[in-house]
Amino acid sequence: MTGWELKVRPRDWQNVALERWRPNRRGVVQVVTGGGKTVFAQLCLLEFFKDETLGQALIIVPTVSLLDQWCIALQDEMNVRPDQIGLLSGQEKPKGDEPIIVAVINTARKFTATFAKGRRIFLIVDECHRAGSPSNAKALDGDFAATLGLSATPEREYDEGFTELIAPKIGPIIYHYTYRDAAAEGIITPFSLINIHVDLLSDEEERYSKLSRSIARCIRKGGVAEGQEERLKRLLQQRAAVSANATMRIPVAIKLVEQHRGDRAVIFHERIDAANTIVNILKARGHRATVYHAEIGPIVRRDNLRLFRRGLFDVLVCCRALDEGINVPEASVAIIASSTASQRQRIQRLGRILRRAKGKTEASVYTIFATEEERKRLAQEATSLEGTTTIEWQQGKMQAHA
């Protein structure tokens, strides 16, 4: 591993966490997105390879976007050569003898246990909460010389997957680093939240209201009774889709980019077709914009991310599937044009924009919302972040005339 070294100075919390991980080389580190968990993992990698010169590291990630991010980070931040990194996904296969292999979790389910036999493996599970389902937990099978889990939110929202499936294989949570910690220490950029309400069009409002009435009837009849649970779930998904696809989200997002022309901005939308529409409109208006989503080939996808980070593009438009893995500290504006009810997704998206970068003094996060359910979630967030940031509420009718 000649030439491997961390190109940045470790932060205080990373040194403290390393001391907690070092004795057993096992455990989960809970770090707010943007706090530096990838750099911490690289510290642990260097620590492991000091003693295990013939060992290998297997880094499990949930998505190809995070595989891309690790591939770039290992080269740019730790001086690892491209030929020393193997990639395992539905699109790529490693040779198997590389010092570091990065694998997407659904492909790693049938890979890890066999790969780990007879080898000294350091298992790193990034966004480890994603390994808490019975199927994904198979990617953690095997005997390992060291383990490390990373996540801003390791405990899962709707089940006991962390306690039952993750902690027994990777270890318990050994360190917490929160938004308040990061803000107090100047680790994340000072930020403001601007929540912008847009109206549903008349046909969208009619569809949304009809589904809401159906949901209410289903619940009154016993939403979890036999035969009703699946119907209720389907109705909730259909109503969420009406909101997520609200027509006015796109022109308002475009108008916000226009207001920040020249700033580096990331736009999130739930749908690939909407992301493509947004980027095409922006290009037509003279913006240097590009798109990043799962339908783009891996080489072009990584190039788009690199070129955005290097300043050749000003706007990056991406989709929900890429919340975990986009590392764009140079961006100072985030526009969440469409989102789900997941608190984890919200934390991930905030973290995308709060990383510090040279010349970046503040960040703005715009969230476009269309329904009362969304407003309530944002109001709860405002209460939890009181004293940490400024929060503004706007009506998006005027912005809709972009």
Automatic annotation (TrEMBL):
Domain Helicase ATP-binding: 18-172
Claim: Repressor is one of the keywords in the record: no
Domain Helicase C-terminal residues, every copy: 249-399
MF annotations from Gene Ontology: ATP binding; DNA binding; helicase activity; hydrolase activity
Keywords: ATP-binding, Helicase, Hydrolase, Nucleotide-binding
One Pfam family linked to the record: ResIII
Protein known as: DNA repair helicase RAD25
Organism: Nitrospirillum amazonense
Family matches, as InterPro entries: ATP-dep_DNA_Helicase, Helicase/UvrB_N, Helicase_ATP-bd, Helicase_C-like, P-loop_NTPase
The organism's taxonomic lineage, starting at the top: Bacteria, Pseudomonadati, Pseudomonadota, Alphaproteobacteria, Rhodospirillales
Gene3D superfamilies: P-loop containing nucleotide triphosphate hydrolases
Keyword Hydrolase listed: yes
